[in-house]
Amino acid sequence: MTDDPICPLCLRPIPPEARSSLHHLIPKLKGGKGGPVVRMHHICHVEIHKTLTEAELARDYDTPEKLRAHPRLAKFATWIAKRPPTFHSKSVGPQRKR
């Protein structure tokens, strides 16, 4: 049994040696400063911000359940779930515009 936190996107544990970061459920630029945050794998966090704009996150994707329901993020979560919890890869492709 592990006491490691669980990533809200891929649902894998986040061991201490894994790269992780905090995701603001409502982006700071859209009024989320001081609001709820969730710890997630860094690779999952990067994928969220490559997929959705700050406005989309604030308006339509302000919960882990809504993020997991997004088609591209659901496909990513299925892919990454097959990797070890410490898996990290340099992201490829252009960053989306804000």
Could you explain the architecture of this structure?
This protein is an alpha+beta fold. The chain has a domain at 20-80. The chain has 4 helices and 2 strands; from the N terminus they run ββαααα. The protein has helices at residues 42-51, 54-60, 64-69, 71-80, and strands at residues 20-24, 37-41. Strands 1-2 form a two-stranded antiparallel sheet. Helix 1 (42-51) packs antiparallel against helix 4 (71-80). The longest helix is centred in the middle third of the chain and has 10 residues, at 42-51. The radius of gyration is 13 Å and the shape is globular. The relative contact order is 0.23.
Termini separation (Å)? 40 Å
| Coarse shape | globular
Q: Average pLDDT, to the nearest integer?
A: 90
Strand content: 5-15%
Give the SSE order as H and E letters: EEHHHH
Rg, rounded, reads 13 Å
Low-confidence stretches: none
Helix/sheet category: alpha+beta
> Spatial order of the strands in the main sheet?
1-2
Question: What is the tally of beta strands?
Answer: 2
